[in-house]
Recover the amino acids of this structure.
């Protein structure tokens, strides 16, 4: 089974059913959890090197994306109810 990255979905093209809303909520939660874990790991692994700064910046960017996606999903879910 191929997992879709949440950002590959256009919420304007998704049928607003309770099942879809639950799935989107679950995916947003998973992405946020993973992004937060990766960000924390990158934050506390910084050693002053360029590579550790790049890992931190990438993790921060991924967390920002996950948070933005979760906000879009919450707006979508609010319209399903």
């Amino acid at each position: 089974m191929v997992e879709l990255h949440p950002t590959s979905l256009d919420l304007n093209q998704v049928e607003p059913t309770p099942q879809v809303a639950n799935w989107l909520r679950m995916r947003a939660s998973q992405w946020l959890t993973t992004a937060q874990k990766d960000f924390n790991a990158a934050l506390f692994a910084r050693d002053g090197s360029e590579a550790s700064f790049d890992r931190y910046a990438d993790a921060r960017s991924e967390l920002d994306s996950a948070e933005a996606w979760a906000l879009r999903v919450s707006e979508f879910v609010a319209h399903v109810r």
User: Anything to note?
Assistant: Helices lie at 18-44, 50-80. The two ends are 29 Å apart (CA to CA). The chain has one domain: 16-80. Residues 6 and 27 are 7 Å apart (CA to CA).
